[in-house]
Design brief:
The protein is α/β, with parallel strands linked by helices. The protein is built from 15 helices and 20 strands. It has a six-stranded mixed β-sheet with strand order 8-7-9-1-10-20, with helices on both faces. Strands 3-4-5-6 form a four-stranded antiparallel β-sheet, with no helix packed on it. Helix 9 runs parallel beside helix 11 and helix 10 packs antiparallel against helix 11.
């Protein structure tokens, strides 16, 4: 499909950022495929939801960030959703290897794992009751690979994670951001202080920081809305402030986990009210723009046909085998394969909501998850360094 941007396997993807940073710091065992200036300390700041195309379109609201937008964008990976992208960044692996294959996905007990809360919904429809999966399916079992942060720490790098304080000990943190010193932050002042403290450390120091306000307001009001643009202006001033205080030998890299598109809630496809999208479906995971459809035994071909007929040219409906062969998930391990839907619905326009089971998500204006350029391409914005 000519509108789909497949993940980049050549070394310019979100998963290549931390290995490239560590290589630029002179840490053995890592390769720089992005082009990071040689440095002593490296800061990686992830602005949730700040897609490459959105930054281009709204450069007047983010003049400092736009001035750094000189390199080709990175691909986020698939699906273009926060839990998958952060795990890819932290592990240096695609979803087919690290196993966090979507916003929600099948877990061994027959339910859907929600990685943001590390809970599972056991009922396929009509029941939003979720139970903790921290003991039943531990994060370290779901994502067993050594993270890039753990490898850096083993190489005597001072590793820090400056993320919202309530992320401490969560399932997603345990799956992807384990290692180093957790530095919980509450406001932008906390985040700036942690980044600058890492920048001025004797080194070598690697600090990962996260800010989620752009994504939040994009979901609620839509990307490009007044609220979203005002938030982007704040983030731009914040990054400029940090950049202007970087000492020699420190580099700041600003990236994103995905972009975002706006869809009209009145024009979506509702899987909870369309019988054609329910017949033969055991579980429906993923999110509005990228659905994992898990079928009952023997029902896959009928489900595939029904979803293709309903969605038409508004997206691409394909089997898991086709998606794996196309490389959307990268290399897929045997343990991860059952987590991928038997049928996948990757949307070009609009989205597939669940008005009953996901009432909150179904009314949002901004969404991501698919493989359009607006969702897949993310910026890599570099400043600082001038020698290690």
């Amino acid at each position: 499909m000519d509108w789909m941007i497949a993940p980049d396997p050549t070394g310019r993807a979100l998963r290549d950022v931390l290995p490239s940073m560590l290589s630029a710091m002179g840490v053995e065992g890592f390769t720089d495929t992005i082009g990071i200036p040689p440095c002593r300390n490296a800061l990686v700041l992830l602005i949730d939801g700040l897609g490459h195309e959105l930054l281009r379109e709204h450069a007047s609201d983010a003049p400092f960030l736009a001035s750094l937008q000189n390199a080709p964008p990175l691909t986020a990976g698939f699906p273009t959703t926060t839990v998958t992208s952060i795990t890819s960044l932290a592990t240096g692996r695609c979803a087919g290897e690290h196993g966090v294959v979507g916003y929600t996905f099948a877990e061994p007990g027959g339910g859907l794992l929600h990685p943001l809360s590390w809970t599972a919904r056991s009922a396929p429809s009509g029941d939003d009751e979720r139970a903790s999966m921290l003991e039943k399916w531990p994060p370290e079992q779901v994502q067993p690979h050594t993270t890039v942060l753990e490898r850096a720490e083993a190489a005597d790098v001072d590793v820090r994670t400056a993320v919202p304080h309530h992320f401490h000990g969560t399932g997603l943190t345990r799956a992807s951001l384990r290692a180093g010193r957790f530095r919980g932050v509450r406001e932008l002042g906390d985040l700036a202080a942690e980044l600058l403290d890492a920048a001025t450390s004797p080194g070598p120091t690697l600090c990962y920081g996260y800010h989620g306000g752009v994504d939040l307001l994009g979901h609620i009001h839509g990307p490009g809305s007044v609220q979203w643009r005002l938030q982007l202006r704040q983030v731009d001033a914040f990054v400029q402030m940090v950049a202007e205080q970087l000492p020699p030998g420190a580099v700041l890299g600003v990236v994103a986990d995905h972009g975002m598109v706006e869809i009209d809630p009145t024009g979506v496809i509702d899987a909870d009210s369309d019988p054609a999208l329910q017949e033969g479906v055991r579980l429906l995971g993923g999110e509005v723009r990228a659905r994992h459809v898990y079928t009952w035994p023997g029902a896959r071909e009928d489900v595939l046909a029904a979803w293709r007929e309903t969605i038409g040219d508004r997206g691409s409906v394909l089997t898991a085998e086709d998606a794996v062969e196309a490389g959307y998930f990268g290399p897929v391990s045997a343990s991860v394969r059952p987590r991928i839907g038997d049928v996948l619905a990757i949307m070009r326009t609009t989205g597939v909501v669940r008005s009953v089971v996901e009432p909150g998500e179904s009314t949002l204006r901004g969404h991501h998850g698919s493989l359009t350029a607006a969702e897949q391409w993310v910026p890599v914005l570099l400043t600082g360094a001038e020698g290690p």
